[in-house]
Amino acid sequence: MSSRKIMATALVTVLAVAAGLAGCSSDSPETASTSTTDAVPLSLDPAAEPEEIDVVIGSVELNQMTTFAPEGWVYDERSDLFEDSASEARWQVTRVCPEPCTARSDAQWINAADGFISERLAAEDLDPTRLDIDDLEPGRRFVVASDDQLVVAGMARWVSGSSEMIWCLVTGPPGVATDLVPVLEFACDNTQAALE
Questions:
Q1: How far apart (Å, rounded) are the C-alpha atoms in residues 104 and 162?
Q2: In contact, 150 and 171? CB cutoff 8 Å
Q3: What's the total number of domains in the chain?
Q4: Least crowded by CB within 10 Å, which of 27, 33, 97, 124?
Q5: What is the tens place of the pLDDT at every residue in 56-82?
Q6: What is the mean pLDDT of the chain?
Q7: Is residue 68 exposed (0-12), middle (13-18) or buried (19+ Cβ within 10 Å)?
Q8: Domain span at residue 102?
Q9: 124: how many CB neighbours lie within 10 A of its CB?
Q10: Whole-prediction pTM value?
């Protein structure tokens, strides 16, 4: 089992508390509101520097769905991203309807997700020295690309027969983004589960 999967498994018990506390109402589909009472402190590696790995994740009402985002990060409505100015990291969990926007079978979703992921990687200022793509299970596609300065991790989640998928992204310096990967997996999986 990969270290990323081990870390994700270890976090499930802690993060499940956040999932259970997440609300289901939204005042505005265009506004992100973070619940501080739902926040769960995460320490992914006790030996690492606290400023690099201490994360508080909370439930967020965004675009008529409940998801999760790092507490204290600033939401930019234009880019539909949460940003942390201190670490220059970015976080996104959003709905996507790839063109043509139509219901797809699982096989069609795999092709659509691969195309979307390729476009997103091309949009980043990244010349990857490492690229990993995993088929974690049906309805999921996960990719991590990195060089010496930047890590880009993304996950696509879909349900066969649907016209939308959930796209989850974290980018940032290796010491920050890498530690957030298992947290992103949790957020993506639980956002999709809430919509099913």
A1: 6
A2: yes
A3: 1
A4: 27
A5: 888 888 878 889 999 999 999 999 999
A6: 75
A7: buried
A8: 3-195
A9: 15
A10: 0.71
